[in-house]
Amino acid sequence: MLAQPRLVVVIAVEVRDVQEIGLLDAFAGVDAAPLAALWSQWKHAAEALAAAGTQQAQLDRERERLAWQIGEVTKLEPAAGEWAELEAEHAKHANAQS
Q1: Higher pLDDT, 58 or 4
Q2: What span, in angstroms and rounded, lies between the C-alpha atoms of 88 and 82?
Q3: Rounded-to-integer distance, Cα 96 and Cα 98, Å
Q4: Residue 68: its pLDDT value, please?
Q5: What pLDDT is stored for residue 50 in this prediction?
Q6: HEC profile for the chain?
Q7: Domain for residue 4, yes or no?
Q8: Mind listing the pLDDT tens digit for each residue in 27-36?
Q9: Does residue 55 lie in a domain region?
Q10: How many structural domains comprise the chain?
């Protein structure tokens, strides 16, 4: 036996506020609470995804900067103990300027 087709009528209504949406849902006999909960979860997940994307971009930039710095230090090929000597000299000059 074939299911009888249902006639669905869609009425375009401009809904201005949440109270009107609630009235329309009640009139239609629709419980929108599960949909509202899912939408809220989706919104939080979308915000978390955007924040993670921003954080990932920052981490990528930091990684590139650090890789460049490591490359520059590697090019210098400091001898054993030379780095500590340079830091001490830098600190001495920095203190002399202040």
Answers
A1: 58
A2: 10
A3: 6
A4: 96
A5: 97
A6: CCCCCCCCCCCCCCCCCHHHHHHHHHHHCCCCHHHHHHHHHHHHHHHHHHHHHHHHHHHHHHHHHHHHHHHHHHHHCCCCCHHHHHHHHHHHHHHHHC
A7: no
A8: 888 888 888 8
A9: yes
A10: 1
Q: Please compute the mean of the pLDDT values over residues 71-89 and round it to a whole number.
A: 87
- Could you report the per-residue pLDDT of 36-53, keeping only the tens digit for each? 899 899 999 999 999 999
Of residues 27, 42, 89, the one with CA closest to residue 97: 89
pLDDT tens for 59-73 read 999 999 999 999 998
Tokens encoding 92: 């001495």
Tell whether 10 is covered by a domain.
Answer: no
* Residue 35 backbone phi and psi in degrees, to 5: -65, -40
CA separation for the pair 91, 79 (Å, rounded)? 19
**Range of the structural domain that residue 57 is part of:** 18-97
41 within a domain of the structure (yes/no): yes
Say if CB 74 and CB 82 are below 8 A apart: no
